[in-house]
């Protein structure tokens, strides 16, 4: 019976799991975007109900990286919509993880990236430009640093201190 990449990675790396070098995010994220499985080095961003910095980062070449947006778990507005999904795709990002909400679900599901978020909310975010780029973030009691690796598939989302061979 075939197992998925994240399951294989967990099975193959029990010591990394027990040492906390490899962590599993809690199963609180919905699956969006065309890429149901994706991985890459992490870029971090901490914001709260404001997505100006999300656009600023996605305007840079993604080079296969994954943007992890800690939106503090707020579900009161969307931090990523169809335009930003398209921008991420066109700039070469592998995916976006949002500890918060997205909107324009149909458009995002048409984008050639992977997207995970708590859910959707049609309300747009503030546009003040507040937040911190490239700082450690805490999502579901998991501290995530820029440069760590994210592996996502339908089974779950892994954060690893180093690149793992799938
Ligand atoms: O600009 C925003 O607030 C998010 C959005 O709707 C989009 O990316 O299309």
From TrEMBL:
Keywords of this protein's UniProt record, alphabetized?
Lyase, Magnesium, Metal-binding
Residues binding Mg(2+), per UniProt: 104
Alphabetical list of Gene3D superfamilies matching this protein: Ribonuclease E inhibitor RraA/RraA-like
Catalytic activity, reaction form: oxaloacetate + H(+) = pyruvate + CO2; 4-hydroxy-4-methyl-2-oxoglutarate = 2 pyruvate
Pfam families, per the entry: RraA-like (PF03737)
GO biological processes: regulation of RNA metabolic process
Biological role stated in the UniProt entry:
Catalyzes the aldol cleavage of 4-hydroxy-4-methyl-2-oxoglutarate (HMG) into 2 molecules of pyruvate. Also contains a secondary oxaloacetate (OAA) decarboxylase activity due to the common pyruvate enolate transition state formed following C-C bond cleavage in the retro-aldol and decarboxylation reactions.
Q: Which family does it belong to?
A: Belongs to the class II aldolase/RraA-like family.
Q: Mind telling me what this protein is named?
A: 4-hydroxy-4-methyl-2-oxoglutarate aldolase
Species for this entry: Elaeis guineensis var. tenera
């Amino acid at each position: 019976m075939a197992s998925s990449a994240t399951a294989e990675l967990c099975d193959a790396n029990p010591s990394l799991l027990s040492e906390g070098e490899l962590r599993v995010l809690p199963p609180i994220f919905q699956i969006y975007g065309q890429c149901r499985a994706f991985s890459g080095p992490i870029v971090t961003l901490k914001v709260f109900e404001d997505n100006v910095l999300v656009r600023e980062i996605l305007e840079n070449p993604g080079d296969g990286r994954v943007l992890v947006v800690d939106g503090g778990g707020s579900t009161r507005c969307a931090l990523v919509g169809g335009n930003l999904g398209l921008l991420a795709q066109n700039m070469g990002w592998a995916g976006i993880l949002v500890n918060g909400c997205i909107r324009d679900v149909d458009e995002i599901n048409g984008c050639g990236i992977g997207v995970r978020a708590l859910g959707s909310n049609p309300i747009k975010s503030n546009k003040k430009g507040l937040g911190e780029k490239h700082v450690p973030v805490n999502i579901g009691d998991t501290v995530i640093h820029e440069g760590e690796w994210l592996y996502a598939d339908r089974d779950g989302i892994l954060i690893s201190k180093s690149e793992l061979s799938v």
